[in-house]
Design a protein that fits this description.
This protein is α/β, with parallel strands linked by helices and about 260 residues long. The chain is about 35% helix and about 20% strand. The protein contains 11 helices and 8 strands.
Length: about 260
């Protein structure tokens, strides 16, 4: 079965919180003045562990999450912050929300390991402009599709598939055949095939950013994703500069890229 933390919501919440506190907040702090009361929006906020690192700083946050059950859990974990008016949640698809009807525009939008799950990424990155203030920014983390576990096979029930790198790069039909052969349940197969369809490369992501008239403020390539520190006790390590400089090749050996982009 999948790793225990995928089903242990409190443990997963803490992973997200620690990662956000130790890596996300420091990454954006260089460009975001926390003394100016910036407004923070997370798309795909799940149980809201990422946002807790920002509410701990007294910042007002909004979490948008399509899964109603995950929002219910988030409200449970963040009850104190809800009572203090530091956070609110919207349980809807992002496209169902009219940004002009929200109480304010946001200084920072966060998508942590979310963009690789979204269909029509060009459309959604442009759509985010309506949620941002004049100089608003978006923070992304993403696993390049060609990285060892870019297909999210770590969620497989099969212990073999869960630990097999790169097999998600098989042609789609063959990939589906392998998942069936190892008796993965249909809902999980469907989800993994969705990721096969939406997985994104570094080159394609940066092309979309440029085409939509955003400015790249900062990026870091990681050989070992900082989240591995909390999940697997593996210390983070930035990618070698030579590897990082080689397009396409770098995607195979980079487990995560952090980006901060800004509206031009």
């Amino acid at each position: 079965m999948a790793y225990d933390f995928h089903s242990d919501k409190e443990r997963y919440f803490n992973f997200q919180y620690f990662h956000s506190r130790d890596y996300v907040v420091p990454f954006v702090k260089e460009f975001l003045n926390f003394d100016d009361d910036p407004k923070i929006l997370e798309v795909g906020s799940a149980e809201a562990g990422v946002l807790k690192a920002f509410t701990d700083l007294g910042l007002r946050c909004t979490g948008i999450e399509i899964s109603e059950s995950r929002v219910v859990t988030a409200r449970k974990f963040m009850q104190k912050e809800l009572d203090n008016g530091l956070i609110n949640f919207i349980a809807k698809d992002i496209y169902e929300i009219d940004p002009d009807k929200l109480p304010f525009k946001y200084d920072l939008i966060i998508l942590k390991d979310v963009i690789e799950h979204i269909f029509d990424q060009e459309k959604v990155i442009n759509f985010f402009k309506g949620f941002l203030n004049e100089k608003g920014m978006i923070f992304f983390t993403m696993p390049p599709w060609c990285m060892p576990f870019g297909g999210h096979q770590q969620i497989c029930d099969s212990n073999i598939l869960r630990k097999t790198p790169y097999f998600h790069l098989l042609p789609r039909k063959l990939y589906k055949t392998v998942l069936k052969a190892f008796k993965e349940p249909k809902p999980k197969i469907d989800g993994l095939l969705d990721i096969w369809d939406t997985g994104i490369s570094v080159k394609r992501f940066e092309k979309i950013v440029k085409q939509n008239n955003y400015k790249l403020l900062k990026r870091i390539f990681y050989l070992f994703n900082p989240t591995y520190k909390y999940k697997f006790n593996i210390n983070p390590k930035e990618q070698n500069r030579i590897v990082m400089a080689i397009p396409f090749f770098r995607d195979f050996f980079t487990t995560s890229v952090y980006y901060l982009i800004q509206k031009n």
